[in-house]
Design goal:
This protein is α+β, with helices and mostly antiparallel strands. The chain has helices at 2-14, 17-45, 159-167; strands at 47-52, 66-68, 75-77, 92-99, 105-111, 122-128, 142-146, 151-153, 171-177, 183-190, 193-197. The chain has 2 domains: 1-42; 48-197, no CATH class.
């Protein structure tokens, strides 16, 4: 085993640094392409769901011009999961959504595993942002859930207007959701009208 490690080390040292540098750049580019392709798939193939935003305070000025988003589905009762072991401190959950009379998607139930749904219901994948227990994590009776839809970057100087609309509950988000539950923001609606459309790339 030692001889093998020594041989690999010698071989590694013979590779020119320029080749290693080029390989590192190619790997980073490939990862970037995969991330873009993954997002494109969600935006292209995902089913659209419209979510109501909730007021958020205060504004974080340290991350550039973006809107912090919180939804009606960001805090939910755990339902049948209450008190059950979560397995980890930030467990993955699947929230069943269904449209109300106004076409806004609301939470129906929260599950630790994917469950069957019938149209127009849909499952969205999220992660609980805290857990009750310290040594033995369990599901609290109330869950704060993040879906990867909690921030949206906007042109410089336009974040404040959208934040005001969000705090007046005039801002809604259309998200694309795949059957797997993965989601991405597709567009923002202000008073029901599109104001920002997310490009596929």
């Amino acid at each position: 085993m030692t001889d093998l490690i020594a041989s690999v080390t010698k071989l590694w040292l013979r590779i020119p640094k320029a080749v290693l540098f080029g390989a590192a750049i190619l790997i980073q580019c490939a990862l970037l392409v995969l991330m873009v392709a993954d997002r494109m798939q969600i935006l292209r193939d995902g089913r659209e769901v419209t979510l109501q935003t909730q007021p958020v305070d205060p504004r974080d000025l340290l991350r550039g011009d973006y809107v912090v988003l919180r939804y009606d589905i960001s805090q939910l009762p755990a339902g049948s999961l209450t008190g059950k072991p979560s397995g980890t401190r930030n467990p993955v959950v699947f929230v069943k959504l269904a449209p109300n009379a106004n076409g806004l998607y609301e939470a129906v139930s929260v599950h630790a595993e994917p469950v069957p749904v019938t149209a127009p219901e849909i499952l969205i994948h999220g992660r609980v942002s805290y857990s009750c227990g310290s040594t033995s994590p369990i599901f609290c009776d109330k869950l704060t859930i993040k879906y990867g839809l909690e921030s949206y970057f906007v042109p410089e100087g336009e974040g404040r207007t959208l934040e005001q609309a969000r705090n007046q509950q005039k801002l809604r988000v259309v998200a694309a959701v795949l059957p797997s539950g993965r989601a991405a923001i597709k567009r923002l609606l202000l008073d029901g009208k599109p104001v920002y459309e997310e490009p596929w790339y």
